């Protein structure tokens, strides 16, 4: 019986197939990289979209760049379960969001599915709709309700989580649980800039299948000087990235991150026009 969320990758070199046996846990196989993005052009591009009536933010653009990158580098959309490498059969992104009540802040985690033909505008719309559906403190999504039920059973939560992990390792976890679980996703992203924090390197979860975690640090102004020492300041956002090195070779990761950075620093060419085209594919 195959998994509902991915297909086993076969025919890979023997050493690549051996590595998940050498590093059986995601925390053992996590690499970290910092990417600095000059967002000067990106902010101007997003401002132009807003002038046209489109609500698009930097996190939306980063998720769009990630989704477009997967079209070129589908190996990044892989995951490892039970020492086997799988190719995910969809693209989805999870992120935590705040719920602002009258007296306190609470948090939930949501997941957005991205279709192959979704452009920046479509992705931003899905994110806005998801946030709107979940922003009220009293609102509980499917994941919240599932966790509430799990924790309402005395002495059983740890046992039930163990059962879920066992089923996941064996590829028999119900599709309904995978669909609602934010831990089964192509990427986790955290917009720390929205709470005035800098980037950090977030751990990868052992539970689930997310092989990539990206955090967004608050943008900083940096000088942009030429050889003569003249020039205007630029805005730079640093991304902290944690990734599972087992899913593909390092050269593919390097090319993917290069294309990802290029997409964000030249958004009009690579992300696409507001009218719905995705522009030049990366």
Q: What are the main properties of this structure?
A:
single chain, 282 residues, Chloramphenicol Acetyltransferase, three-stranded antiparallel sheet, globular
Structure write-up:
With 282 residues, the protein is an alpha+beta fold. It has one domain: Chloramphenicol Acetyltransferase (2-Layer Sandwich), CATH 3.30.559. Helices cover 36% and strands 24% of the residues. The strands form two sheets. Strands 2, 5, 6, 7, 8, 9 and 10 form a seven-stranded mixed β-sheet that branches. It has a three-stranded antiparallel β-sheet with strand order 1-4-3. The radius of gyration is 20 Å and the shape is globular. 32% of the residues are buried. Residues 273-282 have low confidence and may be disordered.
- Give average pLDDT, whole number: 87
What Rg do the Cα atoms give? 20 Å
* Structural domains: how many: 1
Q: Which CATH class applies here? A: Alpha Beta
Main sheet characteristics: 7 strands, mixed
Count helical runs: 9
Strands, count: 10
Distance between the termini: 35 Å
Concise overview:
The protein has 282 residues and is of the alpha+beta class.
Lay out the secondary structure.
Elements (H helix, E strand, L loop, with lengths): L5 E3 L5 H9 L7 E9 L1 H12 L6 H15 L5 E4 L2 E5 L2 E10 L4 E10 L5 H15 L7 H10 L5 H14 L4 H6 L6 E5 L20 E5 L3 E4 L9 E12 L5 H16 L1 H4 L12
Parallel strand pairs: 5-7, 7-8
Antiparallel strand pairs: 1-4, 2-10, 3-4, 5-6, 8-10, 9-10
Helix pairs in contact: 3-4, 3-8
């Amino acid at each position: 019986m195959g998994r509902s969320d991915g297909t086993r990758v076969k025919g890979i070199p023997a050493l690549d197939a051996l590595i998940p046996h050498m590093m059986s846990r995601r925390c053992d196989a996590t690499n970290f990289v910092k990417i600095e993005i000059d967002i000067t052009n990106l902010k101007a591009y997003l401002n132009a979209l807003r002038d046209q009536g489109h609500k698009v933010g930097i996190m939306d653009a980063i998720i769009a760049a990630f989704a477009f990158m997967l079209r070129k580098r589908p190996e990044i959309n892989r995951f490892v379960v039970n020492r086997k490498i799988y190719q995910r059969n969809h693209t989805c992104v999870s992120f935590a969001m705040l719920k602002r009540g009258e007296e306190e802040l609470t948090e939930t985690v949501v997941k957005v599915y991205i279709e192959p033909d979704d452009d920046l505008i479509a992705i931003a719309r899905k994110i806005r709709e998801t946030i709107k559906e979940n922003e009220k403190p009293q609102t509980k999504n499917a994941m919240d309700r599932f966790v509430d039920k799990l924790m309402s059973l005395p002495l059983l939560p740890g046992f039930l989580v163990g059962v879920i992990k066992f089923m996941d390792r064996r590829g028999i976890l119900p599709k309904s649980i995978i669909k609602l679980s934010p831990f089964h996703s192509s990427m986790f992203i955290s917009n720390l800039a929205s709470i005035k924090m800098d980037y950090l390197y977030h751990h990868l979860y052992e539970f689930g299948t997310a092989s990539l975690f990206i955090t967004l640090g608050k943008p900083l102004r940096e000088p942009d000087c030429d050889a003569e020492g003249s020039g205007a300041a630029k805005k730079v956002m640093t991304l902290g990235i944690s990734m599972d090195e087992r899913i593909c070779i390092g050269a593919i990761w390097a090319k993917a991150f290069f294309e990802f950075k290029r997409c964000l620093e030249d958004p009009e060419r690579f992300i696409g026009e507001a009218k719905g085209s995705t522009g030049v594919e990366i």
